Amino acid sequence: MFQEMLENVRKRHPLIHNITNYVTVNDCANILLACGGSPIMSDDTGEVEEITSACGGLTINTGTLNQRTIPAMLAAGKKANELGHPVVLDPVGAGASALRTNTAFDLLSKVGFAVIRGNISEVKTLARYGGATQGVDAGAADCVTKENLEQSVAFIKAFAAQTGSVVAVTGAIDIAADSKSAYVIFNGHPMMSSITGTGCMLSAMTAAYVTANPEKVLEAAAAAVCAMGVCGEIAYERLGPMDGSASYRNYILDAVYRLDGKTLERRAKYNIL
Amino acid sequence: MFQEMLENVRKRHPLIHNITNYVTVNDCANILLACGGSPIMSDDTGEVEEITSACGGLTINTGTLNQRTIPAMLAAGKKANELGHPVVLDPVGAGASALRTNTAFDLLSKVGFAVIRGNISEVKTLARYGGATQGVDAGAADCVTKENLEQSVAFIKAFAAQTGSVVAVTGAIDIAADSKSAYVIFNGHPMMSSITGTGCMLSAMTAAYVTANPEKVLEAAAAAVCAMGVCGEIAYERLGPMDGSASYRNYILDAVYRLDGKTLERRAKYNIL
Amino acid sequence: MFQEMLENVRKRHPLIHNITNYVTVNDCANILLACGGSPIMSDDTGEVEEITSACGGLTINTGTLNQRTIPAMLAAGKKANELGHPVVLDPVGAGASALRTNTAFDLLSKVGFAVIRGNISEVKTLARYGGATQGVDAGAADCVTKENLEQSVAFIKAFAAQTGSVVAVTGAIDIAADSKSAYVIFNGHPMMSSITGTGCMLSAMTAAYVTANPEKVLEAAAAAVCAMGVCGEIAYERLGPMDGSASYRNYILDAVYRLDGKTLERRAKYNIL
Questions:
Q1: Domain B2-272 sits in which CATH superfamily?
Q2: Cα separation, A148 vs B115, whole angstroms
Q3: Alpha-carbon gap, residue C90 to C104, rounded angstroms
Q4: Could you tell me how far CA A135 lies from the centroid of its own chain?
Q5: Residues on chain C touching B250 (C-beta within 8 angstroms)
Q6: How far apart are the CA of C25 and the nearest CA of chain B, in angstroms?
Q7: HEC profile for B196-208?
Q8: Do residues B58 and B87 make contact, with C-beta atoms less than 8 angstroms apart?
Q9: Is residue C245 within 8 Å of C252, Cβ to Cβ?
Q10: What confidence score (pLDDT) does residue B146 get?
Q11: Spatial strand order in the sheet of B38-41
């Protein structure tokens, strides 16, 4: 089934508007092209509504947000909602500053998100907004493990129910869930955390996947998460004796470019809970 | 003749001021170094006139423009004109939003450009500014093909006459023209569209070429376009079985770094119309 | 001794807040991860104090500074000083515009820097702020050479005494000095100047080194400078016949990722003056 999700991206070439941070913006543009989509980056209030109207989907990423770009995030998000375009939120750094946390809360209250994709710590921060307590304090180590998996899945499903979004939490184990079902995904490699931007790239790619598969948001988000993990594995297997993190980054993007649906299907490792 | 253009860049090391988007800015800086020039990036009105005064040429790229950087584009452009420095315009996204289109029009009315470099859709948008109709609707598919080549060349020459700029339109077939002559260039590879920034990089490199060859702006712009295409071919030939778009990007920059005048001359494929 | 410095970075994983330019920001984030630290990029006055409080060290880089980010640099710098976090200044372009020079002067007057890292021209510009004349005009060629080494070391020590900072000047020969001792470092390769960002990356990495080695700021800064040079050499040795500047950049980051303390110690070439 992930095969179909990937193939729809390659067939439909979704155009994705990205309001994102300047650290990983080039990687986000390149991964969108590599997976079969197209990127437009634009963050000025004077044009974001028009730009997002011409696109199929939108990613809002709060890394390096500033006073100028925050209103653009809200304006673009509302416009995309009006038009029925899927919007992906990557709440980078929610919890790290009041500005980021409050911006994420404000976005959650004013924009409907098809998918929220973050790490467990960011997602816990967001969950507190809605007054959630169940599971917020799960996982003392602040990561999803086999030991706290059941509890983590319950927490993520509850947050998905509360927001009406698919919630994708990535880490050593990835979980993509709506209120009823959760894909628990075991692909990926620890070396992915040795480069910046794997999360941002995944969020951008998720927007392409859900835009190309509008009827199957959960499956599409899970497929994107799984594809990123598979590419992290393929890239790792390719490393030579002199290669380090820069080559690894390139190899991940190369793998995304080359990935076909059959390989994704064959290498995918997940359970549905 | 392209050989001489390239060698002048390597000999004269033109210093290029760039006001450009944050998506591909790193690639623009690196291609300027790779081709033999030097980059300075600066976009604050408090310094752009001073910065551009210390440079030999200027690139204005309207990708990810914003309310803060638009006045800086105008100020730098005017200053460069005063000093007789060549200015290259890359009207990224002209036609995609009123802000970008109006900014491009405003720049065209207030700044003289040595070269305007864009895709056919962006250049058609600009041509409408001057009230041009001839050829604006050429090419239903919105790209230059063998079938519409004559019409496209006529359109581009007319726009060059109207603006007094050399106009370089890149796509499957590239055209660089002034009002009288057009270089129709057949180098390049379709895979170049699978990475972000080949257009932006070419605009930055074009500024280096015209700055190092101030007496021969058309030939210099054509040489830059041709060099980019040749490097796209060399990079493609180098791809291994695991390589994808990230390696391809690196190989293009590597090829620009290694390109010599003889290779450029030998591999160049163009007609003059 | 450099071995210990490097190993402390890998052991302590310093979290570094970076206010930096958008040209090389991705490389700065990736080199911090590659050397064993972690990056956070943030430049809005609404959050920089909070972000820097959560970090161990701070880098302020004045490339592509603007009216919005300059107050953030000052606010973050003061906060880091209050908390006793080491702050590294990279005065990119000091001397190239009044805005950059005045910003650097303002930062110097209001923030205490553990390390100032720049090229000789930038550091001379800063030295003029304090009214220094000794050695400011050393080196007509504006670079440190064997011929002007003694004079250059004296100048850098004097500037270190004046500012209370360790001063690291990089070029063909690198010097890292406090008021009393100077490490004169002969590692590195000329090809490092063919890519953008080796200076910015070094400044970010220096912040990681001094944050992980708070008792030995001079030695830590010298170790970072030396590590960057060694990685430039390793990367150069790895270049294949088709490789150019893009591969070289990747190989440098790869080498930083793979570098261990023993290799650093073995390859380090320096004198203490």
A1: Ribokinase (3.40.1190.20)
A2: 61
A3: 9
A4: 21
A5: 246-247, 250
A6: 9
A7: CCHHHHHHHHHHH
A8: yes
A9: no
A10: 93
A11: B38-41, B15-19, B57-61, B87-90, B115-118, B166-169, B174-177, B182-185, B270-272
Minimum Cα–Cα distance from C255: chain A residue: A244
How far is C102 from C98, CA to CA, in rounded Å? Answer: 6
DSSP state of B94: B
Cα angle vertex B117, ends B115, B122, to 5°? 130
How many A×C Cβ pairs under 8 Å? 91
Share in percent of chain C as helix, strand, coil (round to 5)? 55, 15, 35
> How far apart (Å, rounded) are the C-alpha atoms in residues C36 and C13?
5
CA distance B198 to A30: 12
Instruction: Write down how long chain A is.
Output: 273
Q: Which ipTM score applies to this complex?
A: 0.95
d(CA A11, CA A216): 16
For B162-216, write each residue's pLDDT tens digit. 999 999 999 999 999 999 999 999 999 999 999 999 999 999 999 999 999 999 9
* CB contact set of C45 (below 8 Å; sequence gap of 6+): C68, C71, C72, C75
- Label residue A39 by pLDDT band (50, 70, 90): very high
Kindly tell me the burial class for residue A273, based on how many C-beta atoms sit within 10 Å of its own C-beta (0-12, 13-18, 19 or more). middle
pTM, rounded to two decimals: 0.96
SS3 string, C141-202, reads CCCCCCCCHHHHHHHHHHHHHHHCCEEEECCCCEEEECCCCEEEECCCCHHHHHCCCHHHHH
Are the C-beta atoms of residues B102 and B129 closer than 8 Å to each other?
A: no
> Which residues are registered as beta bridge partners of B169?
B118, B175
Ramachandran angles phi, psi of B220, nearest 5°: -65, -45
Contacts of A257 in chain B (CB under 8 A): 194, 244-246
Report the DSSP pairing between strands A174-177 and A182-185: antiparallel
| Residues A77-132: tens digit of each pLDDT | 999 999 999 999 999 999 999 999 999 999 999 999 999 999 999 999 999 876 65
Average confidence (pLDDT) over C12-17:
98
Distance CA C201, CA C253 (A): 10
A113 vs A221: CA distance, rounded Å = 12
3-state helix, strand and coil shares in percent for chain A, rounded to the nearest 5: 55, 15, 35
pLDDT in tens, B104-153: 999 999 999 999 999 999 999 999 876 655 554 444 347 899 999 999 99
Give the burial class of A84: count Cβ atoms within 10 A of its Cβ; 0-12 exposed, 13-18 middle, 19 or more buried: exposed
- CB of A200 closer than 8 Å to CB of A90: yes
B132 HSE (CA, 13 A, CB side)? 23
Instruction: For residue B20, give the nearest of B77, B73, B61, B69 by alpha carbon.
Output: B61
C39: nearest CA partner in chain A: A196
Burial of residue A36, with CB atoms counted within 10 A of its CB: 0-12 exposed, 13-18 middle, 19 or more buried: buried
Contact C99 B44 (CB under 8 A): yes
